[in-house]
Amino acid sequence: MMLDDFMIRAALAGLGVALAAAPLGSFVVWRRMAYFGDATAHAAILGVALALGFSVSVFAGALVMSLVMATAVSTLSGRGFAMDTMLGVMAHSALAFGLVGVSFLSGVRIDLMAYLFGDILAVSQGDLAVIWGGAALVLALLAWRWQALLTATLSPDLAHASGIDPRREQLVLTLALAVVVAVAIKVVGVLLIAALLIVPAAAARPLSATPERMAGLAALIAVVSALGGLGASFRLDTPTGPSIVCVAALIFAGIMAGSHLTKIVRNQS
Amino acid sequence: MRLIEAEGLAVRLGGHDVLHDVNLRLDRGEIVTIVGPNGSGKSTLLRTLIGAQRPTRGRILRAPGLRIGYVPQRLHIDPTLPMSVARFLNLPRRRPTAALHSALEGAGLPDLGPRQMADLSGGQFQRVLLARALLERPDLLILDEATQGLDQPGSAAFYRRIAEVRQEMGCAVLMVSHELHVVMSASDRVICLNGHVCCEGRPEIVAQAEEYRALFGTGTEGALALYRHEHGHSHDHDHDHPQSHEAAE
What we know:
By secondary structure, chain A is mainly α. Chain A has eleven helices and no strands. Chain B is of the alpha/beta class. The two termini of chain B are 33 Å apart. In chain B, 37% of the residues lie in helices and 24% in strands. The chains are: A mainly alpha, B alpha/beta.
């Protein structure tokens, strides 16, 4: 069967995560939640440690911890805490506790690197089902709430006046973020998930006149990065997760340089 | 017919009583303006009425199915969020193309659909905000100092448009304004707010009220006189305060 080939499974895994992460990442960028994404992803490593300790599914552990962190952060942010400090404390504490926790698990031979940087080549068919299930859930959530999410992102007051509760929309994003983090661990690892959210969206910005175009382009850039990074890592024997992020970063740099040059040329003519 | 009513409203923010004992009622088709010094709770009151701020005490009654069009004081669009005028008008609900065209025509901006919101001038931006609010076919239009940053002709044009809109759509209008001369000429009713409702009524009556004068000084009478002058009324008024409405703003 085709899915027996580890490269094909890896490509499909990358594709699934890219398709879900990029549109969600657009919201992360628009709402200035970059650090929020980081904190949620870092909390996932604590979830991984707990899951291994209690012998439950790593995916479930990561999902629950991400949800706890994302909910905690979005609750605190509504109460006027100094968020950058708060997030810095929580993100790194979660990461540190996770790493310490994993070190206690002497019985299990754990390749920590696999959770920190991903292990896309080891994706099983079961993982693939979880990844695509999660990605489909996130995309469905975003499509369903799209107009309300955009309105709430633009201005909570405008949302209220139209009968949209911005807190509910924030909750939708929080949930989607936790799911993406949980399914992306296997692909890029907790340290680079935030990059997968933000870099494609940031790269798509100069080429976009509407939010839909930006989200769509971001998805395209993320897919190209996933497949390109996978190919590069195969040929150059480099770690796959970081290779994917490198390709995305190069695309970002290329688009930025290109749009800057166009602006200069346009101003001269 | 009652559209919205606030009963014994109180809002406490960060340990301060911003509003207390506010009673307010709006009926279909009337234009009501809230005036008051800075920090008197004008914006908080509007935000409470649209549901963005929970009252600490009191309650808000809305006519069933009430549609509100809200024009905020200013709207910051994050530079990372691409937003064309046409796309903005499609929030929070998608509109038929024909409706967008007529909304832009009505706002006097027929060709601006593809333009980015960030590239609009202050006046154009405010008109687009108004056009979006009107696409909701509101029963009640709420404007929070919508002409801030516009020059005098710009804001005069904006308020003329509001009056037209009320004629065309029959919606009630509730607005906050600093421009007392506009208030006096364009409102059916004025509410003078300073944490609570100090006084309210028809513009010329409020302008004579002691509470109002205590807040704005007698200088505003000059502004009122100007208004009366323009409308050819002959009341006795004194011209001792020529720069009066600047002082009042």
